[in-house]
Amino acid sequence: MQKNVLFHHTTPMLLENLFMPNKSEPTTTSNTSAFTSRLPLFILVAILVALITYLQWPEAEQEKSKYQRVVTVKMVPVVLAEFIESVEAVGTARANEQVVITSKYSDLIEHIYFEDGQKVKKGAVLVKLNNQEELAKVNELKANLSESKAHLKRLTELLASRATSKSLVEQQEAKTNAIEAQLTSARAKLNDLTIRAPFSGVLGFREVSKGAYVDSGDIITSLDDLSMIKVDFYLPERLLTHIHVGQKVSAANTAYRNKEFIGEITAIDSRIDSSTRSIKVRATINNKSLQLYPGMLLNISVLLQVENILQLPESSIIPIENSHFVFLEKDGKAVRKAIKIGRRHPGVVEVISGLVEGEQVVVEGALKLRDGSALSIIGQEIEADKIEDKSVTADHGSKT
User: Fold this and answer.
1) Which of 186, 282, 322, 379 would give a disulfide with 267, using CB separation of 3.0 to 4.6 Å?
2) C-alpha to C-alpha distances, 281 to 226, 231, 293, 297, 301, nearest whole angstrom
3) CA distance 396 to 235
4) Long-range Cβ contacts of 114-119 (<8 Å, 24+ apart)
5) Number of neighbours of residue 126 by Cβ within 10 angstroms
6) At 249, is the secondary structure helix, strand, or coil?
7) What string of DSSP letters covers 196-214?
8) Other CB atoms within 10 Å distance of the CB of residue 28
9) Distance CA 231, CA 293 (A)
């Protein structure tokens, strides 16, 4: 402040001497001589102004630093948690067993014993075709077989007493065997005219009506075993050493939001597709609740491995060219630190080096920061208030 006072006292005098004419000098003195005589005064004034500006500059910087912008940020700790590595694929659901029910023979439908979408057990009768002709033939062959066996028995008894030849006995035996074979064939055809469920499952729509004439191969209905769902999908050949039978998979479908269906790999193809360099994998999913249907598009996630690693939210990472940085807090200032990251999951990044467990990093507001920026951490004020309130409460309690 003494320097400023000196300036205020000396400056008017200098200016007065500079611009007021000297009465003692003759008025006829040239302008050049007057400027030359006052040149040292100009230099002295310039030096004084520069000196005062230099002395006042730190005070201006201090005033400016008082109004430095404080960035409000949120911080989270580096955590050691499970990192689940998986691979995604797409597949189509198939029933564990599926078949189209058709007729082996052409005939009229006499009875229908099921409804659309009905659950049936293995061996349940579905349709019975007209079997009168085949039933009559079976009865005829049964009678013929009974008579042939009786005749063979008499010839055998006569052969024992040498009352007949052995060739007649052999002929009758061959005839009996032929009739028996015909009866077996007739019974099989009669049985085929009654159509049964080959396994337990859910029937589709009924495609025929009672009294309709069906040809061989006509579709009657469909049958699906939905207790288990199979799904085939393809994975890159580079993952061949990472997958095995029994490995867990999860499936999701747009019909069921936020729901996963757990299954496991049951088979891996023995060949790799040479055109796509991928391998076919089959998984089965328990479907006792019958929520999955054949033909559904399933998003498959194959669990490769689970390990404990250091993790950070992806929003806390600041990429600059090929490097990655985070901001830490030290003495109320932002400190930028380089780190090395690894694998990624949606919203999560693996930290390989540069940080330790529990270290606090900026997760919100990092883009506004520069190295050395002033910080205001969200939550610290609240925690401080809570601590203060607790201490006050404790003091009151001690007084009582």
Assistant:
1) 282
2) 20, 8, 19, 16, 12
3) 67
4) 114/203, 114/206, 114/221, 115/203, 115/206, 116/203, 116/204, 116/205, 116/206, 117/202, 117/203, 117/204, 117/205, 118/202, 118/203, 119/200, 119/201, 119/202, 119/203
5) 20
6) strand
7) E-SSSEEE------TT-EE
8) 5
9) 11
pLDDT in tens, the chain (400 residues): 444 444 444 444 444 444 444 444 444 445 566 656 667 777 887 888 777 776 666 554 554 444 457 888 888 898 888 887 888 999 999 999 999 999 998 999 999 999 999 999 999 999 999 988 888 998 999 898 888 888 888 888 887 777 777 888 888 889 989 999 999 998 988 898 999 999 999 999 999 999 999 999 899 999 999 999 999 999 999 999 889 999 999 999 999 988 999 999 999 999 999 999 999 999 999 999 899 999 999 999 998 877 888 888 888 888 888 889 888 888 888 888 899 988 887 788 889 888 888 888 888 887 788 888 887 888 654 333 433 343 333 333 333 3
Contacts (Cβ under 8 Å, ≥6 apart) of 215: 103, 106
pTM for the full predicted model: 0.58
How far, in Å, CA of 332 to CA of 341, rounded? 26
Nearest to 84 by CA among 389, 300, 345: 345
Q: Which two tokens stand for residue 318?
A: 């600041």
Structure tokens at 205: 């729509």
Amino acid at 40: P
Supply the DSSP symbol for 49. H
d(CA 150, CA 136): 22
Name the residue among 334, 331, 299, 297 with its Cα closest to residue 318: 334
DSSP secondary structure, 357-395, as one string: TT-EEEEESGGG--TT-EEEETTHHHHHHHHHHHHHHHH
Question: Residues 200-250: pLDDT tens digits?
Answer: 999 999 999 999 999 998 999 999 999 999 999 999 999 998 899 999 999
* CB of 105 closer than 8 Å to CB of 216: yes
In Å, what is the CA distance from 288 to each residue of 8, 146, 226? 98, 51, 7
Q: CA-CA distance, 227 to 290, in Å (whole number)? A: 7
In the block, tokens 């065997």 appear at 177
